[in-house]
Amino acid sequence: MNKHHNKFWYLLFTLPLIIIFATVVLIPFFIGLFYSFFEWDGFSNNPMVYVGIDNYIALLDDGRFGQSAWLTLKFTIMSLILVNVLGLGFALLVTSALKSTNFARTMFFMPNLIGGLILGYIWQFIFSDAFRIIGDLTGNERIFFNWLNDTDFAMYALVIVFSWQMAGYMMIIYIAGIQSIPGEVMESAQIDGANYWQRFKNIVFPLLMPALTISLFLTLSFGFKIYDTNLSLTGGGPALSTELLAMQIYNEIFGYNNYGYGQAKAIVFFIVIATITLTQVYVTKKREVEM
Predict the structure, then answer these.
(1) Domains of the chain (ranges, CATH numbers)
(2) What one-character-per-residue DSSP string does 47-63 give?
């Protein structure tokens, strides 16, 4: 009787989550997969023409899709490094003997509370107006100019904004990892004469691998899927130099009314993200160390 009672409560709490997940994720995915085999403009009163895998074959000759894929990969790699270096650095800073630690944690985490659209507009003002004013005042116009109008610097601007937003979130994960390290281990290493760098390299970093696995996974997934900040900060410009894949797919579907072709891009995009993130989790989990 007790066993059946436990199963009832288990189903009571998990069934709503399963229904929500199926409604929000699984059903739209399979509907999108279905539409990817048709040529359709997205309007219900227009006929859907079955084209099989032609939409997927067309991706091989789509230079704009390939360019967006390369830009997305470039952006994600740069963001992956910068976000986790900053996040780990912030975590080490606020877990040290720093005064006003709570204030520092709040300030580092606060950018993550700002929505991507608002964040993009804030930094748009900084890169366009504030940088120009600083350049005029300091005479250093080679660095302080409107980065958003430059095809080379616009990508770096997007990386900076994304990293500024996400570093505080990763900091929380690294803080949890650092605080889970037994103090006795660190004290023993210190008594044995290990300096700060030796303790970090041989003790802290190996024991932080579970936190690193989670942080890399989240950074990769968020970086690949970024859209709102991309839209408000650069809009894909200048000259499509920052049109990442999520924006490119959105433009294909809703801008050019190529619903079926856009869904094919989305399916390929999903497969690529899943492959890369799952591979990353597999590789980093193998390097995790247990106490």
Answers:
(1) 62-286 (1.10.3720.10)
(2) PPEE-TTHHHHHGGG-H
